[in-house]
Amino acid sequence: SGVGMPTGSYVLPKTVWLPAMKAKGLEISGTFARRMGTIQMDVTFTNKAMQIMTDFAIQFNRNSFGLSPAAPLQLATPLSPNQTIEVSLPLSTVGPVMKMDPLNNLQVAVKNNIDVFYFSSLYPINILFVEDGKMERQVFLATWKDIPSDNEAQFQIKDCHLNSDAVSNKLQSNNIFTIAKRNVEGQDMLYQSMKLTNGIWILAELRIQPGSPNFTLSLKCRAPEIAQFVLQSYEAMLKN
Amino acid sequence: EIDDGLDEAFSRLAESRNNP
Question: Which candidate, A161, A212, A165, places its Cα nearest to that of A190?
Answer without folding.
Answer: A165
